[in-house]
Design goal:
Elements lengths: L2 H26 L6 H4 L19 H18 L3 H5 L8 H13 L3 E4 L5 E3 L2 E10 L2 E12 L2 E3 L2
Antiparallel strand pairs: 1-3, 2-3, 3-4, 4-5
Helix pairs in contact: 1-5
């Protein structure tokens, strides 16, 4: 596979992940919500700490940290923070669109309810999101890229 094909494949996968996040949040958004009315200007508190024991495997621990960072980005409607968790730099237009959609979802909570699943250089962490419109569990695929875990 050539470099351009790999970059195209990575961009497609990254776009699918972002689209999944957006769809998940839209499913839990209250219908007819006014994003301006739901914003207080103060950032939402970070997701609640888990009572699970700290993982011994450093990769499992690192993936859980990324999962909690994803949850925090969702709760705070911080698309720029989410963009820092991706393996490939996202365009400012894509991040701005994601931020608008998250803001439209209104106030939500997000947690990482279960330990991530790690297999070699790939992993999955599930983020549980709840809002006025309902709840949704979204599995985020991660990969180890240049020694760090990121959303492909």
């Amino acid at each position: 596979m050539t470099v351009s094909h790999r970059l195209t494949a990575v961009a497609v996968v990254c776009g699918a992940v972002v689209a999944g996040v957006v769809v998940g949040l839209l499913l839990v958004a209250p219908s007819g919500s006014d994003p301006a009315a739901s914003s207080t200007g103060a950032p939402a508190p970070p997701p609640a700490a888990s009572s699970r024991p700290v993982p011994v495997d450093p990769d499992v621990a690192a993936v859980e940290v990324v999962g909690k960072a994803i949850a925090a980005a969702i709760v705070n409607h911080d698309a720029a923070a989410f963009g820092k968790l991706t393996c490939v730099q996202q365009s400012s237009a894509d991040l701005a669109e994601l931020g608008r959609k998250w803001a439209a979802a209104g106030k939500v909570t997000a947690t990482v309810p279960d330990p991530p699943v790690v297999s070699g250089g790939s992993a999955t962490v599930t983020v549980h999101v709840e809002g006025v419109g309902g709840q949704k569990d979204t599995p985020f695929p991660l990969k180890k890229h240049d020694g760090k875990w990121c959303v492909p």
